[in-house]
From TrEMBL:
Organism ancestry: Bacteria, Bacillati, Bacillota, Bacilli, Lactobacillales
SUPFAM superfamilies the UniProt entry points to: Putative DNA-binding domain
Official protein name in the record: Helix-turn-helix domain-containing protein
Pfam families assigned: MerR_1
UniProt domain HTH merR-type: residue ranges: 1-64
Alphabetical list of InterPro entries matching this protein: DNA-bd_dom_put_sf (IPR009061), MerR-type_HTH_dom (IPR000551)
Length: 72
């Protein structure tokens, strides 16, 4: 799906998705690429962490660990 489609489906503004992508918080590392259902799952997780008080800096360390655990 496109960035605009992901934004519409997730309710997260496109500029925030771009920021999260550039910060390395989503599996898709290029905001111009096609996003997948996996990216939407990880976006939901990022939002959950942020809504519960985590900072973007916290997530820069945490999300790669989550991705690694999910791959195993």
């Amino acid at each position: 799906m496109t960035l605009e489609q992901l934004a519409a489906q997730s309710g997260v503004a496109a500029d925030k998705i771009v920021a999260y992508t550039k910060a390395g918080l989503l599996p898709c590392k290029d905001e111009h690429a096609t996003f997948s259902a996996d990216d939407q799952y990880w976006l939901d997780m990022v939002n959950c962490f942020l809504e519960n008080g985590s900072s973007l800096e916290d997530l820069k360390d945490l999300m790669p660990l989550c991705e690694q655990c999910a791959a195993n």
